[in-house]
Fold this sequence. Notes:
By secondary structure, this protein is an alpha+beta fold. It has helices spanning 3-13, 18-25, 32-40, 48-58, 73-87, 110-129, 132-141, 146-170, 178-190, 221-226, 230-248, 276-294, 300-315, and strands at 90-94, 97-101, 195-200, 214-220, 253-260, 263-271. β1 (90-94) and β2 form a beta hairpin. Residues 207-211 have low confidence and may be disordered.
Amino acid sequence: MTLGEKIKNYRLLKGLTQKELGMRVGFSEATADSRIRKYEKDIMAPKADLRMKIANALDISISALSDNDISSCEDVLQAFFQLEDKYKVKINKGDKKLCLEFSLENTKNDLLNSYLNVWADQKALAEMNKSNFAYCNWKAQFPGSLIEDWNTIRNSIFEKYNNAITDSYYQERCAVTQKDFVHHLHEMLTNNITMDIQEIQDSDFGPDPRTDYGLRFEFSCEELLTSTSQEYINAFAVFLKDTYVINQLGHVIDYRVYQYKEGHQFVVKVRDPALERIAALYNTFLKKYVDAERNKLDTAKDLYKLFIEIVSRLYNIRLDSSEK
């Protein structure tokens, strides 16, 4: 679709005439319709500043007026090839259908996967409500306030844990070594904080040979914001404080909220090559956990002891193994 076709489609979606749109953009009454007509017929192309004015007049995102023109099957395939190269998208054959697969395990795709989940939700909502206008309007305004909304949730998390973070400084519970950091991860696990840890080995933070390895921590925003357990709050506050300390030591930290099938997730990415063994520790524990579930170990105490065993073996750390 050409730029002119996009302008026309969004103008019609908003129920405007060419003259009305032209006057909203700032053209005179005498030339408003002719200027918009030339843009829609691709006789003229609006410059960047005018394109922004047109987007504002239509109340749509400037990205909706991008120059990507996909008008043939070959164009579609070239776009798919770019998705494959940049986002590692795979094509799979199913029963009477072909599917593009976006891996949720690829941490480089956090934002894209989040957008795709929101899109799926909006499409399902449109089909349920049979409201194509609202759906088309959502697409035209995308991403709208999504990033702002996610940042608001992130800030709410920081606000809730701010007092406990301050207290943890006074308690001098600062992670100075990897052992300290593992102790604090252990506290989160034993205080029922649901988290997932993945290794980072990509360019999420840009090319930097000093930080080509790190960890990605994922938490449930709903759980973080609704928990009233003081032990839970203290344990997570200590983790946040640890990330501040790591950042002060010169390593890159990134805090984001994304929206997945499970809901909003608080994602913390820590770039520090020294953390590689912690990922191995946690992944080993998860494997033990899966095996325990398969073998139907019937108490949390059994899993807790497994974690103690792994920590002791990899880090020679003595942790309290008393029953929680």
